Amino acid sequence: MSFKIEITEEKKNPLIDRIEIAFRVDHFGAGTPNRLDVKKKIAALKSSDENLTIVKKLDTSFGSSYSLGKVYIYGNEKELQFFEPFHIKVRNLEKEKRVEIYQLKRRKEPYKHLFKP
Question: CA-to-CA distance for 69 and 105, rounded, in angstroms?
Fold first, then answer.
């Protein structure tokens, strides 16, 4: 799928050691792009670590050919684990890992090792 990403706002948050980016994705004639594809493209644009990049929000209004979103790029793993809620961290993983994490959590088995790259 081809789409174009335009960064509309970029802000540094030194207290939390992250960069907060607001962006617009143009995807004319196609559906909303996958979070993982957007995450990879923004990580490549900002030359940052993909594992420390979190797509916080990706919204498309009905009938529009663009999406608005928010991405956080953390400076280290410790800050990411502390500030991001469980469901957001899981959304930013591949489908196989997501399914495995939810199965392990349901059985009350350890699953935190699956968040590591």
Answer: 28
